[in-house]
Amino acid sequence: MSMILSLFGGLLILGVPIWLVMGTTAFVAFLGEGQALLPMAQKMVDELNSTTLLAVPYFVAAAVFMERGNVAKALIDAAEGWVGGIPGGLGLVCVASCTIFAAMCGSSVATAMAMGTVLVPAMLRAGYERHFAAGIVAASGTLGILIPPSLAFVVYGVLADEAITRLFLGGVIPGLLQAGAIAAWVVYYAKRHGYAREQKVEPAERRRRTLFALPALSVPVIVLGGLYGGVVTLTECAALSAVVALGLSVFVYKGIRPAEILPVMAEAVRNAAAIMIIIALALIFGHWVTEAGIATRVVQWATGLGLTWWQFLIGINLLLLFLGMFLEVFSVLLLTMPVLLPLLQPLKIDPVHFGVVVVMNMELALLTPPVGLNLFVLAGILRCPLSEVVRGVWPFIIIMGLLLVLVTYVPAIATFLPNLVYGAP
Amino acid sequence: MDFSPPAEAAPRGLIGRLDALVVGALGIAALGLASLNVLLRTFAPRHAIEWGDEVQVYLVVWAVCLSFAAVTAADRHVRADLFVGMMPGPVQRVFGLLGDGLGLVMAGTLCWLAVLVTYEAWDFGDVSTTTLRFPLWIYTASLPVGMGLMTFTYLLRVLARLGLGVRRA
């Protein structure tokens, strides 16, 4: 057992791709226990044969279409009309646009990239400090995985065998609270540093911009309305998001030319493939973790410590925060959940609450150096050192950390909405 | 997850364009089928396609498996490269060779195992449980094909790293 875990850790540290780390570890473990390898390939084929997993490439496609299709620009123009005149107006535009964009696509990196490309230059022109502009976009962008639909919730739901529709609802209130907290900090900072107000947009112009953004604004209403109205399944919801996003990008906002549809779709599939191969092998790895009795032993060990649910969650937050500093979101989820999920029942932790806590940790993982993907995105857009972006995100990391503590110890913030809609589990 | 522009990530040349065409077409076909099924089920329930979900899975899994090679070629597999990034250049190259070598062995082994799984599905005449009665070997063949292409890509990478005259994959 210790040899297998050393192999796992060694390969991880050596920078071997995560799918290979999991695959090699599972292979060696299966061989070491004298098990045949053929069922491993059979299991991989079986795990991929899942309609729920289809949601992953579909949501990735929706994110790629919206990112490339000028959808972000329309949302930003509209948001500027609504909140541009308030101190820190452009920062608020960023928070509002990211919140709406997050309700259309399930990826934080796509949200940060789509919004950052347009908003960061605008904020710099308006006299915002570079680190502040970068911090707002990086932090607001993380809402992509908390506000539904969310790729992270889909992957967690698959691993935890939990209803993804409940998880999506669980992310709504924490997501809106986070957006509000970021917005409050932006206004405070802008006032304190004397940022000039944006010129107020005339009512007629505001109406025009809102009308132009209306097709984009209708996406979450149609798609999530369809899902919670019982008209479409989760997978169909993801597919519709992608189809509507493609339609808007090609015919309304004209960011993608018809000739580019197939290459952009192929690009989306490639993005998804990098996740799907890890998911397939992580499910095999998880199977081994269960079969080898690791999960049972961890449960026995943790219950032997006499941990209460809140003590356990302190440990989980610290563990995920640490791992999130070095690993990317899906790697953390796929590496840790097979071991951690069996602990929920003995400790009487609601899987929806735990899912929201995990995803909020993953938001922090996107911002914490040295490996925070949103930091890289912003450093790329600004063409500045990573340290400058890090300087900008620190206040937001603290704000989001405080919110995480609140959601961790007041489970109702996450469970109220799903329990209201579907009833308590 | 990386969302860099297609031009940077996509394999170039005729094979790259063909790959993008096939993968893109499979993805669009799956999205089209999903949308059609929602419309039919909503407005003409009697005509809803019972096997819609099943065929979407086949289309998407084929598209995903065909993309494994492109993801490998573009070096876009997710990894924790912080520690390796701090090492001097020659050490990084050794670790890179180790990773590619391991990828070659693993993808090759998975390819072989998947061939056996596909052969079994064909030999036993396995079909899906819907009215479509789809021969499952056509679905399972996606894995050996995807892994085979990835094995070949890893082989090119290993050869390039060893300086054996093959252009870096």
Total count of strands of chain A: 0
Whole-number average pLDDT of chain A?
A: 88
Which consecutive residue ranges of chain B, at least 5 long each, have pLDDT under 50?
A: 1-10
Helix percent band of chain A: over 70%
Quaternary state reads heterodimer
- The rough form of chain A would be described as globular
Could you tell me the strand content of chain A as a percent range?
under 5%
Question: Nutshell version of this structure?
Answer:
The complex is a heterodimer of chains A (425) and B (169). Chain A is 76% helix and 0% strand.
Description of the molecule:
The complex is a heterodimer of chains A (425) and B (169). In chain A, helix 1 (2-13) packs antiparallel against helix 2 and helix 7 packs antiparallel against helix 8 (130-141). By secondary structure, chain A is an all-alpha fold. The mean pLDDT of chain A is 88. Chain A has helices at 2-13, 18-32, 38-48, 55-68, 71-83, 89-102, 108-125, 130-141, 151-160, 164-170, 172-192, 203-228, 234-252, 261-291, 294-304, 309-326, 329-340, 351-365, 373-382, 386-409, 412-422. Chain A is globular, with a radius of gyration of 22 Å. Chain B has one domain (14-161). Chain B contains 7 helices and no strands. In chain B, helix 2 (13-43) packs antiparallel against helix 3, helix 3 (52-73) packs parallel to helix 7 and helix 5 runs antiparallel to helix 7. The longest helix of chain B has 35 residues, at 89-123. Chain B starts with 5 loop residues before the first helix and ends in an 8-residue tail after the last helix. In chain B, 43% of the residues are buried.
Features:
heterodimer; A: 425 residues; mainly alpha; globular; B: 169 residues; 7 helices; 72% helix; elongated; disordered N terminus
